[in-house]
Amino acid sequence: MNARVPGFVWRIVAGYALVAVLWILVSDEIVAWVAADLAEATWISGVKGVGFVLVTAGLLYGVLRRFWRKVMLHGTRGREATARYRALFEHGNDAMLVIAEGDERILEANRAAGLLYGPGKQALVGRRFSDFQVAAPPEGGDEAVPAGTIWHRKAGGLRFPVEVATTALTWDGEPVRLVIVRDVSGALAQKVTLDRLAHRDALTGLPNRQVLADHQRLAMAHAQRTGSLLGVCFLDLDGFKAVNDSFGHEAGDELLRQIARRIKAQLRAGDTVVRLGGDEFVLLLVDLDALAECEGILMRVLTAIAQPVALDGHQARVTASIGVAVYPNDGLGADRLLRDADEAMYRAKAAGKNRIAFFNAILERRAKVREELLDRVTRAMNEAQLTLHYQPIVSMGSGRVLAVEALLRWAHPVLGVLPASEFLPFVNDGRVALDVDLFVLACARADMAQWRTGGCEPALHVNLFAHASHLPRLVDAIAALAGDLPAQALTVEVDSANLMHGAEVSGTLLSACHALGVRVALDGVVAGSDSIHAMVTGTFDEIKIAPGLMGLGPGASGLPPLVRAHLDLAAVAGRHLVAKELGFPEHLPLLAAAGCPAVQGFAVSKPVAAAEVPALLTRQFAWTGIGSGDSNGWI
Ligand SMILES: Nc1nc2c(ncn2[C@@H]2O[C@H](COP(=O)(O)OP(=O)(O)OP(=O)(O)O)[C@@H](O)[C@H]2O)c(=O)[nH]1
Fold first, then answer.
1. What architecture (CATH level 2) is domain 95-190?
2. Beta strand spans in 449-575 (E)
3. What distance in angstroms lies between residue 526's CA and the mean position of ligand 1's atoms?
4. Tell me, what's the ipTM?
5. Closest ligand 1 atom, CA of 203?
6. Which of 238, 240, 317 should be mutated for ligand 1, with most atoms under 8 A from CB?
7. CATH class for the region spanning 370-623
8. Cβ-contact 96, 111 below 8 angstroms
């Protein structure tokens, strides 16, 4: 209790003391000055004393009356306030408890507290407040329940979420706390419902697209922290539309629900499955050590999905295609990973559905570089950076030029002149292959027209990719070039590696060319049954072998058996054979001695520009080396 004397009391006492002292000091002087004699002075002093007593008594009465009124008023107000607070405490809707500071023993509880915890407020007094707090119930682990929610227990054991507010007070001079407890189970249930609606897919109950970004961000951070892999998997059902069409939309919905449950059942704790919408799902597989682990889980998912689904008296069956991007191996951003997984999923569909396809960043980058190169090749054709050079194919017997082979060169503005071997392998199989084939045929035709005006008309070899899908357009261009030349003066060279992958293509190409009077050469023969088959059956008009790739190295004193076998077989079968890419003059006498009909390569002549071809054709390549030892060579 506050025992301090109010300030106004001190002020009154001090004022009274001052007036009294002044009166004592001054009043006798006044009496002596006013009174005419002693008797009169005695009488005035008596009156003065009585007057002083009456005045001070009057003052005292006034002060005490005022003080008394204040005290009375204060007491009434205090009692009224106490009654009001007690009514609030007693009848408030919130549970209120007064608990001792320290051991939290309940000193008083209101009616609402009695109802909240049961069985009544009196039963609460003396118990510890902390005893009511319990851990969250298992269903309280719902992600929609905010973290940090406090759970209390009723007398019957039921758990409920609460909000607690405390205020420090004194109670009979002792420190206590007033605790207000509010049951928030209603509000929380409402929040959980709203949260479910916002973050859950209504059909399957799975998390929805809104949740995916958060889950993915956390999963990526986890992978980074632990050094593990994260599989971001895009799953799309195969043939789902047919279920809707055959059994109705309701049945389709039921199938989606069952498939969602099956997917979830195959995942591990910590993994996530989200329904994006329609028949699309995203799976986040965490804590992976290797791709094989990811593949194992997804194989189980595929198997589970492929089991028949019972739909109201019917049985439906769907499969799924899954595309996987792996963090941090593939795209490093969340959006990029999803896009990569989506792209891989389309690859899984294209490859026949019901399968898994992994996105591979390295392959993808390589493909990108290849695409860029193809664009550059296209630009090079448009900007006349690609030209044809011509290399003679020379008869071993006569030393005359039998034909010239058109070889592409790229006058690259930065890298200088690039031979075909440096860029054509990228073009093969690509979308630009037909353009390059048509470009070669058109250039050769233009060069041929130039030569003809100069009075020469060499036999011509052109190299074509001749892809199956391009043949109809290609044949027209071949026909146009062949039409400018005498019959059999045009030879189309096709790489043996290309023909390996399309036997029926070679058949179509061969018959189309033969119908046009165009020869076809099988180029790039290294070894194997293709060349033997070609020579024995006579399907090709010419075989070109590269002795250097058959073991004929620099300084060789004899031909490798493989070269000799090809030469012998060509001779026996009566086929024309050209030994190409000859870089060493010392190989020429060996080939000549073995009966090689024709040769081509730097040891004979390098490729020359179109303008130099007429001079090349007049040249008589004279073989000077037969029997003359070191001076072997062509002049
Ligand atoms: N029952 C049902 N159908 C849906 C729902 N959302 C989308 N669809 C249908 O799901 C189908 C999905 O189309 P697609 O993925 O092309 O069907 P698909 O037969 O699986 O085709 P592929 O993926 O190429 O195998 C469409 O016909 C949509 O109308 C849904 O909530 N319930």
1. 2-Layer Sandwich (3.30)
2. 460-464, 490-495, 519-525, 542-545
3. 52
4. 0.96
5. 31
6. 240
7. alpha beta
8. no
C-beta of residue 418 within 8 angstroms of C-beta of residue 389? no
DSSP 8-state assignment for residue 388: E
Indicate the SS3 state at residue 418. strand
Residue of minimum CA distance from atom 24 in ligand 1:
238
- The model's pTM: 0.49
Mean per-residue pLDDT for 436-463?
95
pLDDT digits (tens, 9 = 90+) for 66-104: 878 877 777 788 788 778 888 888 888 888 999 998 888
What is the signed CA dihedral for 538, 542, 546, 549, rounded to 10 degrees?
A: -20
Q: What is the pLDDT of residues 597-627, one digit of tens each?
A: 999 999 999 999 999 999 999 988 876 544 3
Domain assignments of the chain as residue spans, ordered by start: 7-88, 95-190, 219-359, 370-623
> What letters, b where the CB count within 10 A reaches 16 and e where it falls short, cover 21-42?
eebeeebeeebeeeeeeeeebe
pLDDT per position as a tens digit, 173-193:
788 999 898 888 888 888 777
Q: Which CATH class is domain 219-359?
A: alpha beta
Cβ–Cβ under 8 Å, residues 298 and 325: no
- Residue nearest atom 26 of ligand 1, based on CA coordinates: 241
Residue 423 tokens, joined: 């860029």
